[in-house]
Amino acid sequence: RKEVEQDPGPFNVPEGATVAFNCTYSNSASQSFFWYRQDCRKEPKLLMSVYSSGNEDGRFTAQLNRASQYISLLIRDSKLSDSATYLCVVNADYGGATNKLIFGTGTLLAVQP
Amino acid sequence: NAGVTQTPKFRILKIGQSMTLQCTQDMNHNYMYWYRQDPGMGLKLIYYSVGAGITDKGEVPNGYNVSRSTTEDFPLRLELAAPSQTSVYFCASSGTTGPGHAFFGPGTRLTVL
Questions:
Q1: A59, containing H or E segment
Q2: B95 — contact with chain A (CB < 8 Å)?
Q3: Which of A88, A101, A103 to substitute to test the interface with B, most B CBs within 10 Å?
Q4: Which of A71, A104, B59, B98 is most open to solvent, judged by the fewest CB atoms within 10 Å of its CB?
Q5: Are residues A106 and B42, on separate chains, in Cβ contact within 8 Å?
Q6: Along the 113 residues of chain A, how does pLDDT read in single tens digits?
């Protein structure tokens, strides 16, 4: 089983649609969680952190369910500029001097005009 | 601030050749990382550093070496290049907020023929 699993997509949605991505992780010791965005042939960029209480940043809402080891990202009122790959990232403490980031393979979103 | 810069952007190597991928950050971050990203795969950690003079192996260190003589620079050395090292290499850095809040460089696309 992969440590971080995502549906690769692609998710093809019209402008203005609401779309949700899910992610599951296998290590129950995981401590912190993030969503990154990666445009085609570009570097990943941090989109938002994910907190147990859930958090919202404009049209983006992230949720964490520790009991189910499940993370989600909801995008409302999709824009063409939201087209990208969304990476689920989990930070687990393996007892070393630094924590280890595990990246999912990403979910591709294509917003259509 | 330039953030994280990487050189070169592209490189083609022949099997058995060696090269150094350069990475520099100007954010005074202690943590620096090298990742590789293969098509359809998540980013994999090659090496990381928690400060000048301190480096450690990540998930996929074989065939690579690093050094960290200054806070700013974290070069990655490929010895005896192999086709399996064809990939996109990303350097990243993070500060006191931890590895999850990482800033990535634009990447180096390496092909080994």
A1: none
A2: no
A3: A101
A4: B59
A5: yes
A6: 788 999 888 999 999 999 999 999 998 888 889 999 999 999 999 999 998 888 999 999 999 999 999 999 999 999 999 999 999 999 876 555 456 788 999 999 999 99
